[in-house]
Amino acid sequence: SPIVSAASCMRYMTGRPARLFTAHFTACWLMMATNRSNDFHRQVTMRLTEMNKDLRKVIWVGVLFLASGLSRDALALQLQQPPSGEMRQHWQERVERFQRDLQKKPDDVEVLNGLGIAYSELGQHKEAAEALRRLAQIRPDQAATHFNLGFALSRSGQEQEAVAEYQKAIKLSPEMALSYINLGASFLNLNQSKEALAVLEQSIKLSPKDAEARYNLGIALERSGLPQEAAAAYRTAIQLKPALFQAHYNLAGVLSKLGQQRETIDAYKQALAIKPDDANAHFNLGVALIEMEN
After folding, report:
1. What is the pLDDT of residue 176?
2. Are the C-beta atoms of 255 and 267 separated by less than 8 Å?
3. Distance of alpha carbon 93 from the chain centroid
4. For residues 101 and 94, what is the distance between their CA atoms, to the nearest angstrom?
5. Distance between CA atoms of 213 and 202, rounded to whole angstroms?
6. N or C end of the chain, less CB within 10 A?
7. pTM for this one?
8. CA gap 80, 88 in Å, rounded
């Protein structure tokens, strides 16, 4: 997948200023190669700002995330957090522009894709899904379109429909780990633990260093009545991403069920070190301490 990412970068950079290639591409490439997905995102965001947030660059960012197999939370930084202030105004203007363009060219794939991305950036996932669904009907052979549609459907609470789109993406691009990770998450949201286990195990084969995949696998194992295996999955997720609060929190819950009270207390303390204002973690830590004394 890094080779795919490099090729995507090189194709995009063709004919661009030398400084764009030598500085930004090199930095991003090194960050992807060393799994520094958060740093990668920040660098990309700064580059987009310098380049006036041109939509084509945003699409390029999406290609890089998908091609590099980065974790779902790296993509979520792009798509899940609604913007505010100047950025919100920017994306709203994009929406209005694309809507005007659609009146002239209702089946233009670039306009539909741009509209879907703009709506997603605004956190308007139902509207994003409508645009991306039209795009998928016109271009049904594009894995990224089905993936993005699945994401928008999931974010708007349409999990069953999201499952179908992720499955289409996997059929078209079976090596794209992110599709398996998101499909597993949708199965978990539908309380289909058996199906989630199968696809999450496949995602780990494709992307063994993805903390989100390990964390979701832990949830699936826990719901399947396999607490020991779930604890191991949560621990691996923590090793890969020590600041993943929910993995610490869930690990503590599993350890409590296994009767490992001292380890439970330690896990809750580590969770609170990451998120000190979490009321549930404080309450559960208190319960664990009382049980330890008794």
Report:
1. 93
2. yes
3. 25
4. 10
5. 10
6. C
7. 0.69
8. 13
Residue where the block lists tokens 């208190």: 286
Assign residue 81 a region (left: φ > 0; alpha: ψ between -120 and 50; beta: otherwise). Answer: beta
Three-state secondary structure readout of the chain: CHHHHHHHHHHHHCCCCHHHHHHHHHHHHHHHHCCCHHHHHHHHHHHHHHCCCCHHHHHHHHHHHHHHCCCHHHHHHHHCCCCCHHHHHHHHHHHHHHHHHHHHCCCCHHHHHHHHHHHHHCCCHHHHHHHHHHHHHHCCCCHHHHHHHHHHHHHCCCHHHHHHHHHHHHHHCCCCHHHHHHHHHHHHHCCCHHHHHHHHHHHHHHCCCCHHHHHHHHHHHHHCCCHHHHHHHHHHHHHHCCCCHHHHHHHHHHHHHCCCHHHHHHHHHHHHHHCCCCHHHHHHHHHHHHHHHC
∠222-176-107 over CA atoms, to 5°? Answer: 120
Question: Taking a C-beta distance cutoff of 8 angstroms, is the pair 128, 152 a contact?
Answer: yes
Residue 38 contacts residue 71 (beta carbons within 8 Å): no
CB-based contacts of 203: which residues, under 8 Å, 6+ apart? 177, 180, 181, 184, 210, 213
On whether the CB atoms of residues 177 and 210 are closer than 8 A, the answer is yes
Q: How far is 33 from 46, CA to CA, in rounded Å?
A: 19
Q: Could you report the per-residue pLDDT of 158-178, keeping only the tens digit for each?
A: 999 999 999 999 999 999 999
CA 275 – CA 23 distance, rounded (Å): 35
> Cβ(201)–Cβ(193) under 8 Å?
no
